[in-house]
Write a structure and sequence with these properties.
homodimer, mainly alpha, Arc Repressor Mutant, subunit A, Tetracycline Repressor, domain 2, 2 domains, 0% strand, elongated, DNA-binding
Chain lengths: 187, 187
Amino acid sequence: MSTLKSKILVVATDLFQTRGINSTGVDTIVAVAGTTKMTLYKYFTSKENLILEVLNKGHQDFQTWLSDKLNTNTKKPSEKLQKLFEFIEEWVTSPNFRGMGFIKASAEFPNEESPVHQLSSEQSRQFRQYISSLAAEANIKDADGLALQLSLLFEGAVQAEQMKRGSGAMKYAKKAAKILIDEALTA
Amino acid sequence: MSTLKSKILVVATDLFQTRGINSTGVDTIVAVAGTTKMTLYKYFTSKENLILEVLNKGHQDFQTWLSDKLNTNTKKPSEKLQKLFEFIEEWVTSPNFRGMGFIKASAEFPNEESPVHQLSSEQSRQFRQYISSLAAEANIKDADGLALQLSLLFEGAVQAEQMKRGSGAMKYAKKAAKILIDEALTA
DNA sequence: CATGATATATACATATCTGTATATGGGTTT
DNA sequence: AAACCCATATACAGATATGTATATATCATG
């Protein structure tokens, strides 16, 4: 991938997160990225296309990192589930954390016909499905139910952390997750 | 309050929720409300002022309803805490539910200097404080911690419910809340 | 009927947004 | 050196946004 395209993606991810997607014009993006609109529209067919690529990249980066982390550091299925929020906290509190795109995007694009809404909705579903598969491997009865509960904690904590860095929300979300997982394992 | 001003508030609340705040122009609002921009700007000094009034009304309506419901239906502090999510579910699944404004607003206005962001942030804090006071009255040790966890569940569930009505998120949030409250009460 | 407040209709000023057209600069390869 | 590709600079078209100016209509009350 061209370095300029990559640069635009990074800058757009950052600006979308800190200023909002609809409030960030392409003029601002190219100015910060140190290029021009002509170049942006050579790599991205439209602003909507840029948003979709930003979402895809963010989600892939996160999922790849999380899967690798879990696969190399844990073995037993129940262990994976227990360690999940440890790693998520590590990701969220890392200095290069730029927020979870799909959480913001679904709020800014509530129209169900919008491709941006559809993608963010799909990413949310995929993440929940991933947690559910971990829960199922750990022989948890209502795996989908636990996955939904954990994703609620996760999305709530990320939003709180986005609103105010160092809010400590992730710490308490982690504690709550442990309680819910233990309860589900012994049920 | 003038009926027209009230009508504008209701319509704006609805449109902000279903189409997003930034994506909803004042032209659309007055068209749906069956009035004109001149009238809107007689009652509201600016669009930002309208947004702030919409947020205030939504928050007041919710807090008033919830407090009344808790005070008339429960007596013991621990009972209030236990019934909290029952009533919240009732509110969220009621047909005239229009979403929680401050959750959306904080996502669309991430800039901390924005008055809209500040108000929604303050409302989120107030709601958490209210839960914390209920927990404290029930003699829970880490009242703030539990309040934060419950608010994460609540905000996550509301957002999920906003994204897809009938998602069942609130049902599982309620179950999770019960587990966390029981754990905190016996700790 | 007449007065006066309230709402409407319509047009407009100003700004900002996405996306494109056109002409120019600066390297790399042949 | 010449052709070529990539990026830049700049200007602009078209749409839409907020907010205002001006003139008109409605309608209850004196």
